[in-house]
Design goal:
Low-confidence stretches: none
Number of helices: 11
Number of strands: 12
Strand content: 15-25%
Distance between the termini: 27 Å
Structural class: alpha/beta
Radius of gyration: 20 Å
Largest sheet: 8 strands, mixed
Shape: globular
Strand order of the largest sheet: 6-7-8-3-9-10-12-11
Length: 312
């Protein structure tokens, strides 16, 4: 079998000795689209920052991350970041520099990583803006971030990420705070760029509708752990973990009788207040005594794994 493009094993991220991501295993194949979903506080963004080598200095990191078959240390992450691996952050208005034009910010990446001269970098920056479907690209290079809409700023972030033709693009909540039409446009853009460049995309979101429309495979995270991993079609047609089932049940339905949406009781526990055993047990309608022991992930169908005592 071909080795995965990205291979994460037993990844644990802690602050002050308190884990926020715990013993995570995750693979992404070359050219694959992977969705990582879960409520806020589940560890999705922290996982992405660990892969990119962007965790704060106060973080303690255990486990291993391999990219294209090579184990990554801090120096390797830094050399790959922006070239072979790139990331689109959640809020472009705070990620883009407000005192530099978008052209300067795209060109900066090209000059630093590709060694292009000023004029060559500017020409390539215009090509990248056209690639992400911003009209009149040469003129828009002179715009500052505040002169562009939210969707256009997100496209600029994607252009910067694509500047060096990465093999892996991590998109952290790329459609947050965008209206439905703009959101659909961003997803269509990412889908087309993935096909054109043959790159893998790791899409981080709390929106299962976005995942169902984009990802080939899905990892569901809860309170720092992966509770289910499956092909998207399998997960949406037959979710196995009670948390995944509860998330899907809470999606509004367009047809059928009007009824209150079922809600998951309680909230995600704080990192220093994790319950023993299954972390979802205090909120789970199917919890039992065996949930007091942390369940391992088991295979329940082809490429479908779940961490729940119901399947042991």
């Amino acid at each position: 079998m071909t080795a995965p493009l990205l291979c994460v094993r037993n990844l644990t991220i802690a602050f002050g000795g308190v884990p926020v991501v715990d013993s995570l295993d995750l693979d992404i194949a070359a050219g694959e689209s992977l969705g990582v979903v879960g409520e806020s506080g589940s560890g999705k963004s922290m996982t992405a920052l660990a892969v990119m080598g962007l965790l704060p200095e106060s973080a303690q990191l255990l486990g291993s991350v391999a990219f294209e078959g090579a184990m990554l240390d801090d120096a390797a992450r830094e050399s790959l970041r922006g070239t072979r691996m790139a990331m689109v952050f959640q809020e472009p208005m705070t990620s883009l520099n407000p005192v530099l034009t978008v052209g300067e910010q795209i060109s900066e990446t090209l000059r630093f990583h590709e060694g292009l001269g000023r004029r060559a970098a500017e020409r390539r920056a215009a090509e990248l803006l056209s690639l992400v479907e911003i009209p009149d690209a040469a003129r828009r290079l002179k715009n500052y971030p505040h002169q562009m809409s939210g969707g256009q700023r997100q496209r600029v972030m994607i252009a910067i990420a694509l500047a060096c033709n990465p093999s892996l693009l991590i998109a952290d909540e790329p459609t947050t705070a965008l209206d439905a039409t703009v959101q659909a446009g961003i997803l269509d853009l990412l889908r087309g760029l993935r096909r054109e460049f043959g790159m893998a995309v790791m899409l981080i979101t709390h929106d299962l509708g976005v995942v169902s429309d984009f990802a080939e495979r899905v990892v569901v995270m809860y309170a720092g752990r992966a509770v289910e991993c499956a092909p998207a079609a399998s997960l949406f047609s037959r979710p196995r973990h009670p948390y995944t089932s509860a998330l899907l049940a809470a999606i509004p339905r367009m047809h059928g009788p009007i009824a209150p949406l079922p809600a998951i009781p309680g909230t995600v526990p704080l990192p220093h207040e994790m319950p023993p055993g299954c972390r979802f047990a205090p909120r789970c309608a199917q919890a039992r005594a065996a949930c007091a022991v942390l369940p391992p992930r088991v295979t329940v169908a082809a490429d479908h794994e779940v961490a729940c005592v119901l399947y042991q």
